[in-house]
Amino acid sequence: MADRIQIRHATPLLPGERSATDPSRAVTLGVMGGGQLGRMFVHAAQALGYRTAVLDPDATSPAGLVSHAHVHTAYLDADGLARLADAVDAITTEFENVPAEALRRLAERRPVAPGGDAVAVCQDRAAEKAHFTASGVPCAPYALIETEAQLAAVPDALLPGILKTARLGYDGKGQVRVADRAALAAAWAELGRVPCVLEQRLALAAEVSVIVARGADGTVVHFPPQGNLHRDGILAVTTVPAPDVSPAQAAEATACAGRIAASLGYVGVLCVEFFVLADGALVANEMAPRPHNSGHYSIDACDASQFELQVRAMAGLPLVAPRLHSPCVMLNLLGDLWFDAVGRERTPDWAGVLALPGAHLHLYGKAEARRGRKMGHLTITAASAEAARATALQAAAQLGISAF
Ligand code: ATP
Ligand code: MG
Fold it and tell me: What pLDDT, in 10s, does the model give residues 295-322?
């Protein structure tokens, strides 16, 4: 029964048409989660002419503030899920920690893309790594640690390593770098002895990510690989085209991401993060079942953004390969920029930054700036990669972001 209901639309959901399930309203697209990714999804859906609805427990969520409708309940609230399903014609998600069970329940009522089963794989690092391996994509050597016996049996070759909680980590949270067995045991205790993976710490020559969109008919399109710089476990700078990546590596990363999506039966936008090792080998790190911070540049530098492709995939519209029309650099704007050197609050110099050529400012409407909190991003587009980088360095200096 569930399988029959999950069959995708025979025809696309067209913007502005009457809803087939509720002719009293126009076609509406729903999103689980109200953060900045949901906000940019809502912007893209509305630009195409759709109505939108967001489910998020926070009354002032970035996406809820701009959506036609906002259901304020917990993700597993039965009434909230029913209200969201009533209000929409298809549903997507904007962050991977929406309980997969909520997506499965919604799928009994409406098409959900990506599906709960695919999201469940992305929510668990052990399942994710097993999926990479099954898709023929290498990942860092690792061991699963759920018991004292598994802790004791960890091979020496994995140290020094990084201990990561299997679930609910993001932006470097839930991770501890460990040099030896004593540090490993202490770190596992510190993390509450929850299921973890220990990964060998690799020497990274570079980091790249690839975003693909896959339709229900199996069509896959992709963005060019993005070069990513992380600071303190948080994405700081994305550069496209990715420097330090050969055409062969770019082709391999893209093919790997496409295989990972296809073998999940995935519908929607998927991001796969890769490490590039010193010998040029590519290793998959993790994946996100949604648009990704490293793809925000696509709004301003491509002829279709990752959010537009998310809309198209869930609505059954054609997926057309996006084209990068301008080299670019994206800077993440963390809450730290809202404080001066002695910790006083300030407003960053937006007027100065917007005086730079090719500067595209995106702020997410979050009321309170906190250190490490993603408040917005700035994309610099230019006619050449060199010019984009030079202007981005100027913007970084104006805002107080360290040079890269
Ligand atoms: P996010 O969800 O924000 O991408 P996360 O908290 O899920 O981050 P990871 O992507 O696993 O964390 O790791 C964050 C960063 O830490 C990586 O981008 C990389 O810079 C570094 N890192 C993670 N694992 C390894 C590893 N095995 N070897 C070397 N560096 C690593
Ligand atoms: Mg990551």
Answer: 999 999 999 999 999 999 999 999 999 9
Q: Whose CA is nearest to atom 12 of ligand 1?
A: 172
* Pocket mutation for ligand 1, best pick of 173, 202, 275 (most atoms within 8 Å of C-beta): 275
**CATH superfamily entry for domain 204-399:** ATP-grasp fold, B domain (3.30.470.20)
- Report the atom number in ligand 1 closest to the C-alpha of 228: 18
Tell me if the domain spanning 28-122 has CATH number 3.30.390.50: no
- Where does residue 228 fall: left (phi above 0), alpha (psi -120 to 50 degrees), or beta otherwise? beta
Taking a C-beta distance cutoff of 8 angstroms, is the pair 239, 227 a contact? yes
Cβ atoms of residues 301 and 381 within 8 Å: yes
Which letter does DSSP use for residue 403 in this model? Answer: P
- Ligand positioned closest to the Cα atom of 95: 1
For the chain, the domains span 28-122, 141-200, 204-399
Q: Tell me the pTM.
A: 0.95
Domain 141-200, CATH 3.30.1490.20 — does that match? yes
207 within ligand 1 shell (Cβ under 6 A): yes
Kindly report, residue by residue over 79-128, the tens digit of the pLDDT. 999 999 999 999 999 987 889 999 999 999 999 999 999 999 999 999 99
